[in-house]
Amino acid sequence: MDFDDKFLYRVYAIDIQQQISDRIKVAWYYTFGGSETQRTKSERQPVLANGLQSVMYDRSNKLVYVAVNEHGPSRSFADTLYGLNDKGWVEFRRSVGIASMSRFVTDHCYKTPSEEVECSKRNDPMLGPESLLLIVTPESTILGVDHTGTTQRTFNLNVIFNNDVNVTSLLSTIRNNDTENDTLIFAVTTGTFVPSAYTIMLRNSPDGTVFEFSSQTNLRTSYIVALDTGTPGNGSDVIRWKVPVPNNMVALGQISGVQSSASNDKGQLIVYAEDTGKAAEIFSIS
């Protein structure tokens, strides 16, 4: 791999034993970047994008998905996806921009009488389709990637909304039951700048150069969106619903689900939004 030697990142797999002493053991580790001779240096810069959930475990496929920024901290997003098996070997590596990623847990794992962990088979018709690793790219495209690293679904949000779209939150994945496809919950801003009715003319002295500035109006709108990954294509029908964010603030962070104890209540989604430097709020969607 063409890493700069100053970038170093390591993923550890830790075994926790059911015993009094030596309970924690390193099962394996995988190192991204740098050489053995440079691992003793004290000045090391991370190869993870800030704020990105960079490691996810797929128990049914026995894979660890790792989003790595191979070009260092100069980028705000990861640019490479690794799939490591449960022994620490690389199953796949692909170049892809990753601003956020999520995966719904559909493995239905259980312990056998011999204490072995068994998981349901992929694409079991009784359990519905395999949950894909869902990735938001910096270009506001959502990719559904399977356990081989192959893209199975593509949703171009700019085309779906027929507008410039920016995904502002992390992804959340939900299913009403095991046989459904994944539904993605996330926040976006859509908007364009339109010219206003006036223009400012500035003359620069002493050479007399004239600069012209046309004013613009921001028509940005913020939404919480539910996208059905089982609907093919980039039509508007992939959007199950969208809810405007109160006061047109920007929703950030993780959108969380809260289950109610009432049998007839499906629960709520909890969202944080803010108008930077002015106000912030937490609201719910039922």
Task: Give a brief description.
By secondary structure, the chain is mostly beta strands. It has one helix spanning 157-161, and strands spanning 9-16, 24-32, 55-58, 63-68, 78-85, 90-98, 100-102, 110-111, 117-118, 133-136, 141-145, 151-156, 165-167, 172-174, 183-190, 193-204, 209-218, 221-228, 239-244, 250-258, 268-275, 279-285.
Shape type: globular
Radius of gyration: 23 Å
Average of pLDDT: 77
Tally of DSSP β-strands: 22
What class do helices, strands and sheet pairing give? mainly beta
Tally the helices: 1
Biggest sheet features: 5 strands, antiparallel
Helix percent band: under 10%
Q: What is the first-to-last residue Cα distance? A: 47 Å
Strand residue percentage: over 45%
Helices and strands, in N-to-C order?
EEEEEEEEEEEEHEEEEEEEEEE
Q: What low-confidence regions span 5 or more consecutive residues with pLDDT below 50?
A: 1-5, 35-47
Characterize the structure shown.
The structure is a single chain. This protein has 286 residues and is mainly β. The chain has one helix and 22 strands. The longest helix is centred in the middle third of the chain and has 5 residues, at 157-161.
Annotation keywords:
single chain, 286 residues, mainly beta, five-stranded antiparallel β-sheet, four-stranded antiparallel β-sheet, 1 helix, 49% strand, disordered N terminus
Q: What is the element layout, followed by pairings?
A:
Blueprint: E1 9-16, E2 24-32, E3 55-58, E4 63-68, E5 78-85, E6 90-98, E7 100-102, E8 110-111, E9 117-118, E10 133-136, E11 141-145, E12 151-156, H1 157-161, E13 165-167, E14 172-174, E15 183-190, E16 193-204, E17 209-218, E18 221-228, E19 239-244, E20 250-258, E21 268-275, E22 279-285
Antiparallel strand pairs: 1-2, 3-4, 4-5, 5-6, 7-10, 8-9, 10-11, 11-12, 13-15, 14-15, 15-18, 16-17, 18-19, 20-21, 21-22
